[in-house]
Give the backbone structure.
Amino acid sequence: MQIDSRLLDEILEVVERPARYVNGEWNAVHKRPDEVDVRVLLAFPDTYEVGMSHLGLKILYYILNQRDDVACERTFMPWVDMHAAMKDKGIPLYSLESRLPAREFDILGFSLQYELSYTNVLAMLDLAGIPARSEARGADDPLVIAGGPCAYNPEPVAPFFDAILLGEGEEAVGEIVDEYKRARRESLSRREMLEALARVPGVYVPSLYEVEYREDGKIARIFPTSPAAAYPVQKRAVRDLGTVPFPDKFVVPFAEIIHDRIMLEVFRGCTHGCRFCQAGMVYRPVRERDLDDLCELARRLVTSTGYEEISLMSLSSADYSRIRELVSNLLQRYSGSGVAVSLPSLRVDSFSVDLAKEVEKGRKTGLTFAPEAGTQRLRDVINKGVTRNDLLEAVRAAFAAGWQAVKLYFMIGLPTETEDDLAGIVNLAREVLACGREELRRAGTTRSPQVTVSVSSFVPKAHTPFQWHPQAPMEELLEKQDYLKHHLRGRGLKLAWHDVKSSFLEAVFSRGDRRLAAALEEATTLGCRFDAWHEELRFDKWQEAFARSRVDPKFYANTHWSYDDVLPWDHLSAGVSRDYLVAESRRAAEGVPTPDCRLGKCVKCGVCPQLKVAPRILARPVEGVS
Amino acid sequence: MERNAPSSPGKPQATCRIRLTKTGPARFMSHLDFIRAVERAVRRADLPVALTEGFHPHPRMSFSPALPVGVESECELVDVDLRESPSVDEVARRLGCVLPPGMRLVSCVVLPRGGPSLSSMIRAASYQVDFARDNIAGRPDVIEAAIEGLLRADAIPISRTTPKGTREFNLRPLIYDLRLLRGNGAVSVHMLVAAGPRGHVRPDDVAREIARRAGLGPGARPARIVRKEFYVERDGRFRPLL
């Protein structure tokens, strides 16, 4: 049964940006939901503009809809005004394609990209009329599953999901659908179905594990309660990206989205090994796509979407071993037809600046570099293999090439940070500015350089060498921000910072356990949603929610955990071994960097033997030649 | 593979004037969204579009005046400059199959270069306003009286609030015609109002004014509005542009 379209259309006349709530975008897939075996609804717990910018959603939408027995549709968290209007008129969460209520789908798949979207998950389940807790759902309710980076510690939301996929979905998603079909064909009970799903490699079924706590609040043990439940659950990784489908069609939205362009994933994984970076750990090993495949995909996507920009996506696109060839190939083919090429992530070196120069041509809006820390000592601690010289060389090249605005990303509150490191941020920013003045003067322009320093607060993440580290208390982070605000003043300097409250919440949930589920429910009841949106975050409500559910958020965010502690995610494996994380954590304390495994020497992180997947690098880099 | 130098976007040889609908889901697109959607459709159609000069060339196109979000149209006009002079059939065939739902190709003509631009030609636009039946069931006379009142008025002060503040202006001289359309029990108003350089009327302003005079409360369901036609002025008369 479709929802009341007339009622919906009336609401659409009055809400902000109604184009995000209607169907019929170019390349959207329309099937008859009553003519397929399995209806899957991909649910993104943020706005349409954010969710539609996410590559993973596009990939799964494409792969699932390639199957004749599946209809895969999409839904997003309605913005505040739409949410209120839908509640008011009794319109449930619905799919864009068929305007079918979410609860009439067989499987709801949530994408968990960041912790601050958790309240939106609950708000969406509430709007759908689906019980929030897995244990409260019955045979008539959809299977509610999740995936995405938060799956590496999904414990705060574990009670809400029937199953959670760890790692890459290209292959696993089909296996989940097959298992679901089989379970239904054999009329298995809900519990039996969950056990069947738990046998799919990479699938974590939270209800098949129990957690025991110690008197001091730490975890005593986590153990499976069913023979179907693996311990640990091992993440999925695709051996060769060339063998799994990548969409040759993207849905082209009616309304502008955040990344409104072709996203071409050039490789997956990252070899730099920055110790704070979860993506760098969990997406290992690095796997590059073939150059010819990428060119062919670009061609098909330009034809099928009509987009005017191709963005070369990955954690560090300049690392792609055939990046030069790729860029020049694409530029040669498209620059005459008004299709631009862009590189969203730049390394701190002049090679990257050269690449940017090649693709950006006259745009020159601004370049962003991420030295992350202000001193060499701290950069060694976090294993950010960037020196002051690298940075100055890169920005010199940028200013010389005609850029006048440079943005520098730093983190504050990193393990072992002292005031020297903050002073280091100030000094580096000033040096970059001076360098800009010099280069622009040399170029004979009267324009003056602009240096924006953007500081975020360190958030400890699961499966990283810093997972045992606390986040600095909010007061301390505020003091550090004040220090920078005080010292980074003057012509040509700008400072941008993140709200410490949202960083605190992120830390609470990134290291959280199942006891936080109650706090999430309380917060949602109190009206928290869109916590990642600065103007929507209601920290007072959050404090009330923690108090009501009797959990101490500081226990999660601000406590140092020891190597002996059982961590909330100890039953989940991203492939990187615990021994490696401990060793890296110790090297961090000693300030010893670990080299990039791309350079040929294995760092023994354990991923390749564990997952039986090898790094796939098209061409070995030659030192000193780029 | 043929190599196109980035600095040679190609001299326009012809202009293709296309008429599109903007109905159904497409009515919720903003004007900017609509421009992007047409640019992308033109690229999917692989038409030999002429590009603008500069580092970031984009298709050379111009559009009829913006439509308020939510208002439908049967007559959005777009001039697309082309590097070659393809046949009208060719353009229609290629473009016709790459438009999203709600955007339908109504007609298209190929014009020689150098003709007057859309913005310099357009003088008026017509709209049809359908009032929701349950608001005024069986009482078209109320609407008719409101229309007559509007046409008799010397001045119709309207205030428009923009981010820059509230502006007052007189709507009356910009309204050229208002007529009640009867049939099928629906109550609709046909309006012909100024569009283009001499003044531009938002159809929802007029619809609201009619609703207000007809005594429909602010809670009444909004009217459905469709832009029907653009007009040029020739020999003192309005004639359809395309």
Remarks:
- Residues 96 and 105 of chain B are 6 Å apart (CA to CA).
- The domain at 122-240 of chain B is CATH 3.30.70 (Alpha-Beta Plaits).
- Chain B has two domains: 14-117, 122-240.
